[in-house]
Amino acid sequence: MRWLIAIIPGLFLAQATLSAQSVHRLLREGNEAYKEEAYAGAEEAYRKSLEANSTARGHYNLGNAIYQQGRYDEAVRRYEHVIENADNTEVRAQAYHNMGNAHFEAQEYEKSVEAFKNALRERPGDRSTQYNLAQAQRQLKMQQQQQQQNDEQNEDQEKQDQQQQQQNNQQQNQDEQQQQNQQQQQEQQSEGEDQNPSEQQASEQQQGESDQQKNMEKRELSEEEARRLLRIIEEEELQVLEKLRKAEKGQPVKKEKDW
Fold first, then answer.
1. Are residues 130 and 227 in the same domain?
2. How confident is the model at residue 220 (pLDDT cuts 50, 70, 90)?
3. What is the H or E stretch that residue 123 is in?
4. Are residues 26 and 109 in the same domain?
5. Under a CB-based contact definition with an 8 Å cutoff, are residues 82 and 95 in contact?
6. In this predicted model, what pLDDT tens digit does every residue of 7-33 receive, in sequence order?
7. What Rg, from alpha-carbon coordinates, does the chain have?
8. Domain termination residue (choose one: 116, 144, 172)
9. For residue 56, what are the contacts with CB-CB under 8 A and spacing of at least 6?
């Protein structure tokens, strides 16, 4: 196994009593299969032995067979049963040790550290457990550092995502405002081009009346000037006639000064 001293097999045998003869035979078969690394066959034999007589040591052997097949969570549950029901510290120490290995293989390093510590409480000074504990503590530290690094990266990524979202929102608001302005301009132009015919006709009529009024004012002004000119001409003619009458009567005609 990676960086670990192998689990402690134990391979405990049940006491050979008349009521446990079948259990003893099944456990022996399981042990033989376990030694040959036929772990599935060992598991089957251990399960049959537990059906005949459920013992802490039977659960321990079954946990080891399950562990060797990579089903670490299930193995842990077997070791927990052993710890709760074992009648001596040696069995509990071995169960804690193997439980630490199972947690380690499942990369549950914090639980692995705790299991190895419990094994040392049951059996202080055990070198293999001390070694495995050091390895589990090392992996736990690396895992925590990696988790911290991942958290920081996730936090930075979240900040970047928030900033990008804000920029996108600002750009979207600007685009919407620009679109509204363009729409308003188009509506204003459309109102000027698509004016109501009656309103347009009334506007043209008003414009025509205004032009007609101006033309009439021009005509009236011209007629007045014509009358004034006629009066001037009549007055000049009267002056000429008056001079002629005086000349006929032999009166001297007053010569106008030529300025």
1. no
2. low
3. none
4. yes
5. yes
6. 677 665 544 443 557 888 898 999 999
7. 60
8. 144
9. 81, 82, 85, 86, 87, 91
Crossing angle of helices 56-68/39-52, nearest 10°? 160
How many domains would you assign to the chain?
2
- Is 13 within a domain? no
Examine residue 241 and state whether it is found in any structural domain, yes or no: yes
Tell me the average pLDDT of the chain.
Answer: 83
From 180, 92, 96, select the one nearest 130 (Cα to Cα): 96
Asked whether residue 74 is assigned to any structural domain, the reply reads yes
CB 9 within 8 A of CB 36: no
The whole domain housing 58 covers: 18-144
CB-based contact 11:34 (threshold 8 Å): yes
Cβ atoms of 5 and 132 within 8 Å: the answer is yes
Q: Where are the beta strands (DSSP E) in 170-216?
A: none
Can you say whether residue 254 is alpha, beta or left, with left for phi > 0 and alpha for psi between -120 and 50 degrees? beta
Residues 6+ apart with CB under 8 A from 4: 101, 104, 132, 135
pTM of structure = 0.59
